[in-house]
Amino acid sequence: MGLLDRLFGKPAPEPQDPPVKFGRYTDTYKKPDQYEAWDKSLKAFEEGNYMESYRTFLQYLRDEGEDNVHFRETEAGIEFELYQGSKKVNGLANLDHVKAESKVASTETMNIGFLRRLIDHNYDLKYSRFALDADNNISIIFDTYTLDCSPYKIYYGLKELAANADKQDDLLLDEFPVLKPVGMGHLKDLPLAEKEIKHEFINEEIRKVFQLMDSGKPDPQQYPGANAYLLLHLCYKLDFLAKPEGHMMEVLERIHRQYFSKDERNTIQKTHLLRKEFQKLLDRPKEDFFKEMYQVPATFGITSPVNHEKVVTVIDGELQHMDWYAENNFPEVALSIPGYIVGFCLFNYAVPKPDWDLFLLYYKITESAYFNKLGFSNSYYDPETNTFDKKAIGRAIRHIVDSQADTYPKLQAQTGSLDFSDLPAFAKSYLHMIRVMDMTKAERG
Q: Which CATH number is 32-180 given?
């Protein structure tokens, strides 16, 4: 031990943030060895080396952080299993065919309601199909002959199967009591304290927005967009920060669909519709929320990958709308617009990794109380005193930039342009900082 250590002791280690996950899983952020495995899989398939193609394809899918894919070679071929949320997919690949199956739910009695639902879904599926097995389990199946089974087809076939299995099990179980859960052994229950914090956050945020709407300021007849921004910001924020599964996830997706549907409803009518959906969440028993609060691995993302230019387009299209609300003393509505931008991008797209990290930091700053309750160490903003920890924010931004330097060598952050006068001003300047970043990727060698 050195002299300074003996005099002052060793510096305290940086506190570790809790292992709380946020947002929807995306398989866009793959490592170089995974891309190398994909290239090998394509080459092996073109050369007719099908078993090697399957082997390297599964290596491409495997995410070490998720521990989502396992496979082994047997006399029958390559047996594999992968996880997508609440469901496990089992499969076999050999020189004749590839077959994968996921059990969605079990039933002892046939019901015309869920059978009709599954038949309707089969018309929409391109690669897979719902079926009943000999034990009366509802399953979804994908199979194809090896000669017609390129890595592209396997990827999209397994993705369709896994995504539908994961989504439909919660929806079917919630709607049809005759169905029973099956294959749920890998679900990891969240700590009770985390469930309580998330449930409290969901209810508090919905009530806050309702109170703002009930104040009638600004006049919703004259400025209907204000309530729309408040509700959509709320929808996307809850989806990302509470990370719901099952029924609540479907409600939030329905809110998004209802607002953007091309029908005869005007903005005021749509906001009334959205409020009713949020009211249903408020009225829902706590126990029903807790049943859907669990942690699961995933293999496929459900959002479409986009480049940074798409994020820039969303910022350019929406951010200027906050100015009038900020200038006329409606700070909550003004802040909901950059919040809407961040949430809309995260809900709909798999944005570049620096954008994702910076958007998470945005929430850590603007929703600091929530993160503090969850046990996160940094408090970037104190709403009671309207003060920012400028140094901590700068360090966090620089860490994001430095961590992505190999993939995005031109990435820089103009932190000097940040406006710390109040939260809406900061939010606007923060998105402007993101907007001008150069996220040109390094060429993959």
A: 3.30.1460.10
